[in-house]
Amino acid sequence: MTPTTIEWSDWVWNFLRGCRRVSPGCVNCYAEGVARRFSGPGLAYEGLVQIRDGKPIARWNGKLRILEDKLDAPLRKRKGLRIFVNSMSDLFYEEVPFEVIAAAFGIMAASQRHIYQILTKRPKRMLEFFAWLERQTDRGPHHEPLHPIGVCLHYAQQYSEHEALLDTAPILRRAWPLTNVHVGVSIEDQQRLEERLHLLMQVPSWVRWVSFEPALGWVDFKGLHGSPPTWPALPPSIFSASCRPNQETLNAVAHHRRMANLARLRHVQSTVAQPSRWSTGTGYLDWLVVGGESGPKARPFNVRMIPRLIEQFSAAGVPLFVKQLGSRPIERYGYLETPCSGNGCGDGDWCSAHSARPLKLKHKKGADPAEWPEGMHVQQRAPEITREQEAELVAAQEAARAA
Questions:
Q1: Is residue 37 part of a domain?
Q2: Which of 18, 44, 136, 325 is disulfide-compatible with 329, CB 3.0–4.6 A?
Q3: Which domain holds residue 48?
Q4: Are 28 and 293 spatial neighbours (Cβ–Cβ below 8 Å)?
C-alpha cells in the first residue's frame, strides 16, 4: 500500500494490475499512463499494456496480474485509514476471480479500523459477485447456512497467515454487509448514471456512492429514467436549498435513514421480494464526489453544474465532495440556465452558439479551492458508521430477518 494524493482518501491498496476500457470515462485513464511509463522489461507493468509500432502505449491489453503478497497489506497498518481499493484496476473487472474478491472482503472484515472505498464501472459484475457469495453461504458441512463473512475469511486465509485472520469469532459478530466498506460506481455522463446507478442500489451495502469524474456531461440525479425503473437517487428535501449541513448532522441523518429503511423492510419482507436477503442502507445514494478531468488531454468540464448539484444534495441531506475542477474548466451558460431558442437546438441542449468562458487556474488539476468560483468549495465526507451504530444495525437486521 502507498499514500495517495487523492483528496478523499489516505492510501491506495493495489493488489491487482490491469484492466480494459468500458466507456468514454476510461479515455485518458490515469492508470494506463502510469502503466505505460513502467512497462519496460522487469518493471511493474511489463506485459499489461498494448504495443504499437514496437512501443508501449497508454492502453491496457486486458491481461490481469494478481499480487497475492499485497492482499493482506491493510492488516499491517494499525492506524485507521481511508483506503481506496485498486486505483490500478477494477475490483470487479471480469478477469478477477470471485474467490480473490471474497478474499479482499475477508481482509476488510478483519480490519474494521479502516474505511475501504471501492469504485467500479462494472456494477453488474458486482451484483453477480454478491449473488455468488450468497450461494456459498448455503454450503455448510451439514447444509446449514454459513455467514458471508466466514466465507470471505476462508478465502482470505488462502492468501495470508496474518494473525488478524486467526481469531474469527469477533469478526463473525460484525454486521453484514461490512459497515467499513463504501461501495460506489464511477460515471461520466447521464447515460452512464442511468446505466449504473440502479444496479448499485441493488448491491448490499450500508454506504453507496458515486464518483462523477471525469465529469463530461450534465447529469440530473432527480431526472432518472432507467430500465428497469431506477431507485430514486436522492431522498426528499429536508433542508432549504441554501443550507449547508455540517458533517455531524449529515452522519446523523444517514444513520436515521438506515434504521428507518430496516424498519420498513421488516414490515414488507414477508410480501415483497427484495434484491437480497441482506437488504441494507438508506435506500438512497449516500455520497457524491465530483471532479473534472486532469492531464494534457483533458476534456472540458462545465463548472456551472456544480452549484446545481450542491443545491440538490444539500437540500436532501446527502454529503457531496467537490474534488477538482480539472485541467480544462469552463463556464458555459448554454445549458438549462439559458436554453437555446434556435439554431436547431432543443431546450436545454448543449449549443455551440453559446459561449464557453475558460477558467484560468494556476493549479494544473484545478484542485486548489482558493481559486474556485464562490460557493463551490464543498468537501463533505461520506457518512461513517460508529461501533455503537453498527450494534443498532445488527439488532435491527436480526429483527427484520426474523419477521
A1: yes
A2: 325
A3: 19-63
A4: yes
> Residue 139: exposed, middle, or buried by beta-carbon count in 10 A (0-12, 13-18, 19+)?
exposed
Examine residue 27 and state whether it is found in any structural domain, yes or no. yes
CA distances from 295 to 95, 345, 363, 371 (A): 28, 31, 12, 18
189 three-class SS: coil
Residue 358 preceded by cis peptide, ω within 30 = no
Pairing of strands 16-17, 65-66: antiparallel
- For the CA atoms of the chain, what is the radius of gyration? 22
Is residue 339 left, alpha or beta, with left meaning phi > 0 and alpha meaning psi from -120 to 50?
beta
Strands 82-85, 115-120: pairing is parallel
Number of domains in the chain: 1
Neighbouring residues of 41: CB distance < 8 A, sequence distance ≥ 6? none
C-alpha cell at 195: 446505466
- The pLDDT assigned to 267 comes to 55
Residues near 363 by Cβ (< 8 Å), separated by ≥ 6? 324, 371
Are 333 and 355 within 8 A, CB to CB? yes
pLDDT of amino acid 234 = 84
Residue 23 belongs to a domain: yes
Query: In 3-state terms, what secondary structure has residue 120?
Result: strand
- The answer to whether residue 242 sits within a structural domain is no
**Residue partners of 68: CB distance under 8 A and separation at least 6:** 15, 159
The DSSP call for residue 41 is: T
Residues of the chain with pLDDT under 50: 227-229, 269-278, 335-350, 352-353
